[in-house]
């Protein structure tokens, strides 16, 4: 395993249960937009790449024939299995594996998705090509991730690395659309939403002082240089993740 992948596994082994329990990861309106972009039907075979605790995969399984979820962190797959066990779903299968080398045959799936993962990857373009490889011709590929604006990208990445050492860089929307075009995918949908979060629920205690200093400075300046509309509210610092959804036809 590469040093970076080990960093991802270490981060999400520690955060597997808190990540699975965070309400924002199953927020109703955001999930509705995501499901609409995936457009599942009862005959579809779907793959969720970097599936984490299985929140999206389990939701898709309510609408599809079969859903597979794969994640590099075994603790996340354990959370996904626990989520499945708490439901009556019988059409899911879980794998531990790398998004850069998916263990599936070419054209195995009707739809391939990934959510909140590209910013953890050294080479998201290569992952997108792997998603294309395992998607059948004419199938659908959907990526959901935070997409800062070009002028806030650097500060946004700095903020994310302070709270998560496995963060690489969040693509802008145009960068995300460009890697889809480079992969010769036909863009069929661009959508998005803002996901509100409370800083206290998203970082380890030892990371908080530096994060609070960064957010306080940004809030005091009024410039929103991080691009997340940070503000003080009663229970701490709140901000919005700027999330985009892009869907392509393979």
Automatic annotation (TrEMBL):
Keywords: Methyltransferase, Transferase
Domain (Methyltransferase type): residue spans on this chain: 47-143
GO molecular function, a single term: S-adenosylmethionine-dependent methyltransferase activity
Keyword Calcium included in the entry's annotation: no
UniProt cross-references to Pfam families, sorted A to Z: Methyltransf_11 (PF08241)
Gene3D superfamilies: Vaccinia Virus protein VP39
Keyword set includes Zinc: no
GO annotation, biological process: methylation
Protein name: Methyltransferase domain-containing protein
């Amino acid at each position: 395993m590469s040093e970076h992948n080990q960093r991802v596994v270490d981060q999400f082994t520690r955060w597997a249960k808190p990540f699975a329990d965070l309400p924002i990861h199953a927020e109703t309106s955001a999930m509705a937009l995501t499901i609409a972009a995936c457009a599942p039907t009862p005959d579809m075979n779907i793959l969720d790449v970097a599936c984490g605790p299985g929140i999206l995969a389990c939701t898709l399984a309510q609408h599809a024939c079969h859903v597979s979820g794969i994640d590099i962190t075994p603790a996340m797959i354990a959370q996904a299995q626990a989520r499945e066990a708490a439901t009556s779903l019988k059409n899911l299968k879980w794998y531990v594996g790398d998004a850069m080398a998916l263990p599936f045959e070419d054209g195995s799936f009707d739809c391939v998705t990934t959510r909140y993962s590209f910013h953890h990857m050294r080479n998201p373009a290569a992952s997108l090509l792997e998603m294309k490889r395992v998607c059948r011709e004419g199938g659908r590929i959907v990526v959901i991730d935070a997409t800062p604006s070009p002028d806030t990208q650097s500060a946004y990445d700095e903020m994310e690395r302070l709270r998560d050492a496995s963060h690489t860089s969040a693509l802008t929307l145009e960068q995300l659309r460009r890697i889809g075009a480079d992969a010769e995918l036909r863009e069929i949908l661009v959508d998005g939403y803002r996901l509100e979060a409370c800083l206290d629920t998203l970082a380890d205690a030892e990371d908080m002082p530096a994060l609070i200093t960064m957010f306080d400075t940004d809030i005091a300046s009024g410039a929103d240089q991080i691009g997340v509309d940070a503000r003080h509210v009663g229970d701490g610092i709140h901000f919005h993740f700027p999330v985009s959804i892009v869907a392509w036809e393979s």
